[in-house]
Design brief:
single chain, seven-stranded antiparallel sheet, elongated
């Protein structure tokens, strides 16, 4: 039924002239359900993709197993290894949600402004604000589907560094820790901007490639007409 520690569940049901497939998989903190019906003549009808967003990873595996049990009660069975080798349902490529770009720029400005203040104004309150903002940004980024691993590692490291600095601040080493808070904030702002720019450029490249393919197809059609 499952693989990769219940990251994917694939089920199948035969209904005479049709075959129903059901797949559930996880990407980040989002749980996906995809249904496909295959006709006897080989044509397939893909149903609506159902998404469930979880605030944390906890509970996702249990939810997947509950959904699988419901489907098995309706006559579905796990796919065999041979059936998995010729998948009917293609998993989506993980992509960053474009809606994330706007708040990411806002977070970058906040981190940059806070970093500059930390360099200029010695204040334990600003240290706490830096930790709180860093924790919130980490929460918003760690479960984003399509987040590159290098960026995931950075934000995990950012949170670890801010946590250590918070402990030092609690031990009354605020003045020692503050320049490091400031540095982390400024670097995090730059990383957020790079993340947005990188994916904007990637989207532009994809659009350019699609346009290039359309132009080539149109030229091929024109050449065919000329040959006639």
């Amino acid at each position: 039924m499952t693989n990769q520690q219940t990251k994917v569940i694939e089920l199948k049901r035969n209904n005479g002239q049709t075959t129903d497939y059901w797949v559930s998989y996880r990407m980040g903190r989002t749980l996906y359900q995809v249904s496909v019906q295959e006709q006897a003549d080989g044509q397939t009808d893909e149903g609506e993709v159902i998404k469930e967003r979880f605030p944390f990873y906890f509970g996702m595996k249990k939810r997947m197993l509950e959904l699988a049990e419901e489907k098995e009660a309706l006559g579905f069975r796990p796919l065999t290894e041979a059936e998995k080798a010729a998948p009917v349902i293609e998993e989506e490529e993980p992509q960053l949600d474009p809606a994330f770009f706007k708040p990411a720029i806002r977070y970058a400005w906040l981190m940059l402004g806070l970093g500059i203040l930390l360099f200029l104004l010695p204040s334990p309150i600003l240290n706490g604000l830096a930790f709180g903002l860093g924790l919130y940004i980490w929460y918003e980024t760690f479960g984003q589907p399509g987040m590159p691993r290098s960026y995931q590692r950075y934000f995990h490291g950012m949170l670890a560094g801010l946590t250590i600095l918070q402990v030092l601040s609690a031990l009354e080493f605020e003045r020692v820790a503050q320049p490091y808070y400031a540095t982390i904030c400024v670097i995090s702002a730059i990383v957020l901007v790079l993340l947005v720019v990188q994916h904007r450029l990637k989207e532009t490249d994809q659009i350019g490639q699609e346009e290039s393919i359309r132009v080539r197809k149109m030229k091929d059609i024109d050449l065919d007409h000329l040959d006639d």
